[in-house]
Amino acid sequence: MAIHRPHRRRDGPELQARRSPFLAESVFGKVRLSATSKAARNFERAVQDNVTINGQPWQSFDDLQNDTDIKLLEDQLDDLIVDVASKRNQYPREVQVQLVKAIKTQQKLLGCCQPAMNFQEVKADPSQDSYMADLSLSTRTASNHARETFKSLASLVEKGEGFSKALSLQPTLELCQLRQQIISAPGGKKENKTDVKDLTSQVEVTPPQAAVSNSVLLKIKRRPCSPQRRYPLRQRKIGLDT
Question: How far apart are CA 56 and CA 70, in angstroms?
Fold first, then answer.
């Protein structure tokens, strides 16, 4: 960090003596630079005034030289434009000719190549056409039958459910008929008792879950000579398949 000290009056001559060489050098440099630039300008002016090119002064020759250069450039530009236009018309035709030649040579090369295997034509058997026609007809009929069965499946299921309900109600109907016969049968008490025994021995009551193999059957004792033993009842099986 620089420390500034106050200058005294007696220090002035010393500072001026120290800085005088630098000031003299800077002033002399400026004077020398201006003198050299002035000398260069004078020399250039003297050359332009005293030198002639082809009998013409320096200033007029520069203008003529520029004009000639511009004319040369314009002529070269015109030549280039003409050359490019001619090439635009010429080169596509040449390229087309070369392309046609290349395609022809490629076709010749392909013609020279022979396949390693002889191809054999496969003809369809006429009998297969009839088989295919029969197969298509059978598939159509099968699809129609399947469509009809699917349509009638819901109604068949409803009918089967109603039929199974009716069969489940059959034992109750038989009991009702038996009771009606017991109540409406004429004669003595003994005959009624024997008739009841005969009638009850002929009836076998089954619950609605008759399809189960382990179902409990409510059986009544039968006489040894009852027709139920001679002709036993068979379980009824209902098939819903059509």
Answer: 20
